[in-house]
Design a protein that fits this description.
The protein is mainly alpha-helical. It contains seven helices and two strands; from the N terminus they run αββαααααα.
């Protein structure tokens, strides 16, 4: 009887996880629509808060749920893309780089402090890998839309001292991405603190 009760509870929790993940994906999709330009970045780069729901999903339900939120929000926004899907590809790669380590470390340590550590490490990883992904994947594809020289010149208009794409990515994109990850994580923490006991109680069943 107890075993059947646990199975029913697990099924109910899995259903709630699915609903909560879908809800977070919807919220992330809407937040991604409300992106805005940052004066210290070229105008083809925008800031949004859509990583916040993805981090929440990863911390409460695991990294797979977080990646799912990242995937859904970018698929939905692909239909209104101004970059031919390149911006959405970059967003998915970098968001996944944030939520995977955040979710793994947060669930491994399984404390509020552990979640903070996971988010900080995830933000750093996302920032560092932004250099790699942009240099080898995103910008080579984006070059089909805008010549790389024009891209570099847009960076130079902000800081004339940068030389070459790699220099631009290190000086501009890496710090920008780090801040974006930390902001999303900071927004997530108060809500996660409330929801964490609820999800942990189910995981212990």
């Amino acid at each position: 009887m107890q075993t059947q009760s646990n199975k029913n509870l697990r099924l109910m929790f899995d259903t709630r996880k699915l609903v909560f993940t879908a809800l977070l994906a919807a919220v992330a999709s809407v937040l991604m629509l409300f992106s805005f330009k940052i004066p210290i970045m070229p105008n083809f780069i925008s800031f949004d808060f859509s990583d916040f729901p993805a981090v929440m999903a990863s911390l409460t339900m695991g990294p797979i749920a977080g990646v799912f939120v990242c995937l859904v929000k970018n698929i939905i926004n692909l239909f209104s893309s101004m970059t031919g899907g390149v911006g959405e590809l970059s967003n998915f790669i970098l968001s996944s780089c944030l939520v995977i380590p955040a979710g793994i470390i947060g669930r491994k340590i399984n404390t509020y402090k552990g979640a903070i550590i996971g988010c900080v490490i995830g933000s750093v990883i996302m920032a560092l890998l932004s250099i790699v992904s942009n240099y080898f994947i995103v910008y080579p594809i984006y070059e089909n839309i805008m010549p790389i020289e024009a891209i570099i010149n847009m960076y130079k208009e902000i800081n004339p001292n940068v030389n070459g794409l790699l220099d631009c990515l290190i000086v501009f994109n890496c710090p920008f991405t780090l801040v974006k990850g930390l902001v999303a994580s900071a927004l997530c923490m108060p809500l996660y603190k409330v929801l964490r006991p609820v999800f942990n109680s189910y995981y212990r069943q």
